[in-house]
Design brief:
The protein is α/β, with parallel strands linked by helices. It is built from 9 helices and 9 strands. It is globular, with a radius of gyration of 17 Å.
Amino acid sequence: MKASIVIPAFNEEKNISSAIKAALAQDYSDFEVIVVNNASTDNTAKIASQFPVTLVSESRKGLLYAREKGRQTATGDIIANIDADCLPSPHWLSTGIPLFKNQNVVAVSGPYDYYDGGKVFRAISLALQKTVFTLVNKLFVSLRRGGTIIGGNTLLRAAALEKAGGYDTSILFYGEDTDTAQRVSKYGKIIFNPRLTMPTSARRFKAEGTLKITLLYFLYFFRITFLHLFPKKKKS
């Protein structure tokens, strides 16, 4: 199976080089790397163009506009999403892709490891993701109601994502992974693998506050989840 690693990037001149190098260092044999320059005004595109990647532009600013552009450009059987501040290990693809040998699997995800966060925050966050997220995913899969995926650490079967209509570009940021999980789960099973850990930056938590970001993530998770569980009845 060929994998397409998609990296959306908005003004990421400080991070994009490291993300691309980590993506290109995969020990998996068949993959491509696509960088989506998402309306950047800095040197993101110039830096990305120096690497053997497919560089495309998306002028509409927004994470899912960029992801959708990358999806449409991709030629792989698996869409592998990372963010521009992620540093996937060389074994990321070779750990995740074998799980798709089960034809019923449509998505594989795992936890974030906030490598530049404080020791206590990093340890607690990783432990909670590995336990709580795994249990929640198993519950949702058993109920056939979606699953748990983390946007910048997700592998998706391209055919299932196509059937689901791609990404919902009306979503700006929060809740995008929950929405994607809900829609692709109609076509198969989602796996949350605690071993598929993705090193990423804690910069958003540092900039906006840990409590605020955590509450927003959970708010949108439950809002989208329960809207799908209990859709509004159409007026007759």
